[in-house]
Specification:
Blueprint lengths: L3 H14 L7 E4 L2 E3 L18 E6 L8 H10 L16 E7 L6 E7 L7 H5 L5 E3 L5 E3 L9 H5 L5 E3 L18 E3 L4 H4 L6 H9 L7 E5 L6 H9 L14 E4 L2
Helix pairs in contact: 2-6
């Protein structure tokens, strides 16, 4: 049995270095964790000098679904065989909103909101749900016991439970049957100085116009996302909960 000290030690390593592990370690039935390239040197752990965030302009989003497709491909979520569609894993989904008073309709991409004080982390009994110092919320598959408390605590319905055996996994996105998972803001790309797959796809879709999604450091006043927020503003979904989300919306 894994001791509490061992779990704490692994958790610190996981938070500081991201999803990196030795090749060939089995983490769940039928799941093999491949080695993941370290994006940061071991002596430079993640810190709170930045806070990564995403701004989504609902006025620009036309419901094209490119962000969903890109996310599924990036994390291997398109290898789906379960006949029950309601059990399908989704890191990001496009929600169609309609104002009953005016009839106005708009599409809204929704994913993990990467809260500053995430409820999923508060209720997790093993520490599998965690928030990195740079604001990215993720799940440690090694110590997730599948209790699904985090799914019940999330006010954004942003987490999924893996019901089926996983095949053809992406080395950068290890997954496991019986575990809970959600958007991790493409942490493997962020640690490699790249933007999340959904943001890249949105930029391509809006190549002739301003994109509907912006990614960057919310603490850097010179970053594009900070400039956009300062100029046009941005809202949180369920701001009344006081979670200080890393995902903001314009046009709600």
């Amino acid at each position: 049995m894994t001791t509490e000290n061992n779990i704490d030690a692994y958790r610190r390593k996981f938070v500081g270095g991201g999803l990196a592990a030795a090749a060939g370690i089995a983490i769940a039935p039928g799941v093999i964790l491949n080695s993941v390239a370290q994006a940061k040197p071991a002596d430079k752990p993640v810190d709170d000098s930045v806070r990564w965030g995403i701004l989504i302009d609902a006025n620009k989003c036309d419901g094209c679904n490119d962000c969903v497709t890109a996310c599924n491909e990036e994390h291997g979520l398109d290898n789906y065989t379960n006949s029950n569609e309601s059990q399908r894993t989704q890191y990001i989904r496009v929600v169609n909103l309609r104002d009953k008073a005016t009839g106005h309709e708009q599409a809204l991409p929704v994913m993990c909101q990467h809260c500053e004080t995430p409820p999923c982390v508060d209720v997790c009994p093993t520490g599998a749900s965690m928030r990195r110092a740079d604001g990215i919320v993720q799940v440690n598959m090694h110590i997730c016991i599948g209790c699904r408390y985090c799914m019940m605590a999330c006010p954004y319905k942003a987490r999924s439970f893996v019901h089926e055996a996983i095949t053809d996994q992406r080395p950068s996105s290890p997954r496991g049957k019986g575990c809970v998972e959600s958007c991790n803001m493409c942490v493997h790309r962020v640690d490699n100085d790249e933007q999340p797959a959904c943001v890249v796809a949105c930029n391509k879709h809006h190549a002739e116009d301003e994109p509907a999604m912006f990614f960057g450091d919310l603490r850097d006043e010179n970053s594009e996302i900070s400039k956009q927020l300062k100029k046009f503003g941005g809202k949180q979904i369920r701001a009344d909960l006081g979670l200080n989300t890393g995902v903001r919306y314009r046009g709600l």
